[in-house]
């Protein structure tokens, strides 16, 4: 074997090695992906087990002591959610329908009374904190609603008012 052949063989070895290596890398990426998708499946089944245990607890069945901390954690989270939902319902404010003047919920897109489409508004966008200039992001809504405050403390948005 002469020098040239030796050199060519070395190059060929390097190239072959690199190709094989990149093949292995690809292969391992695939395997890692498979492993993580298998682990996802385990996590899903585990959460199904957890859900069954929690449902058993809610239904009043005996649950093992070792899951009490998790059950307490879920109860605390559920209480927070309920509190947030309550406070959302309480702060749900009213606006006046621009078509018929009915008092409707702030997030109504269409008036439940007359069906009139309401200008798009979001409370956070159209109501700058007191003393601050309106950012002007809701020009249309602003001019529509200037005359009537959109936030009402009584939050009486019920549709069954007959006085409109
Ligand atoms: Zn209306």
Structure described in brief:
By secondary structure, the chain is mainly alpha-helical. The chain is 55% helix and 4% strand.
Report on the structure:
The chain has a domain at 3-89. It is built from four helices and two strands, in the order ααββαα. 55% of the residues lie in helices and 4% in strands. The termini are far apart. The protein has helices spanning 3-58, 68-90, 123-126, 139-145; strands spanning 94-96, 103-105. Residues 123-148 and 150-155 have low confidence and may be disordered. By secondary structure, it is mainly alpha-helical. It has a two-stranded antiparallel ribbon with strand order 1-2. The structure holds zinc ion (ZN). Residues 97, 99-100, 102, 111, 113-114, 116 line the site of zinc ion (ZN). Zinc ion is lined by residues 97, 99-100, 102, 111, 113-114, 116.
Question: Beta fraction of the residues?
Answer: under 5%
Flag low-confidence runs. Answer: 123-148, 150-155
- The neighbouring-strand order within the major sheet is 1-2
Outline type: elongated
Structural class given helices, strands, pairing?
mainly alpha
DSSP summary: helix tally: 4
From the alpha-carbon coordinates, what is the Rg to the nearest angstrom? 32 Å
List keywords for this structure.
164 residues, two-stranded antiparallel ribbon, 4 helices, 55% helix, single chain, mainly alpha, binds zinc ion, 2 strands
List the helices and strands and how they pair.
Elements lengths: L2 H56 L9 H23 L3 E3 L6 E3 L17 H4 L12 H7 L19
Antiparallel strand pairs: 1-2
Bound molecules: zinc ion (ZN).
């Amino acid at each position: 074997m002469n020098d040239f052949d030796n050199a060519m063989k070395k190059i060929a070895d390097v190239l072959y090695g690199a190709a094989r290596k990149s093949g292995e890398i690809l292969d391992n990426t695939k395997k890692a992906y498979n492993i993580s998708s298998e682990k996802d499946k385990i996590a899903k089944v585990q959460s199904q087990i957890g859900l069954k245990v929690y449902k058993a607890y809610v239904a009043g069945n005996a649950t093992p002591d070792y899951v009490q901390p998790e059950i307490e954690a879920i109860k605390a989270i559920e209480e927070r959610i309920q509190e947030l939902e309550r406070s959302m319902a309480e702060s749900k404010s009213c606006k006046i329908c621009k078509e018929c003047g009915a008092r409707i919920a702030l997030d109504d897109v269409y008036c439940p009374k007359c069906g009139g489409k309401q200008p798009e508004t979001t409370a956070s966008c159209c109501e700058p904190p007191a003393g601050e200039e309106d950012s002007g992001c809701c020009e249309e809504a602003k001019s529509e609603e200037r005359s009537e405050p959109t936030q009402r403390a009584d939050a009486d948005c019920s549709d069954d008012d007959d006085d409109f």
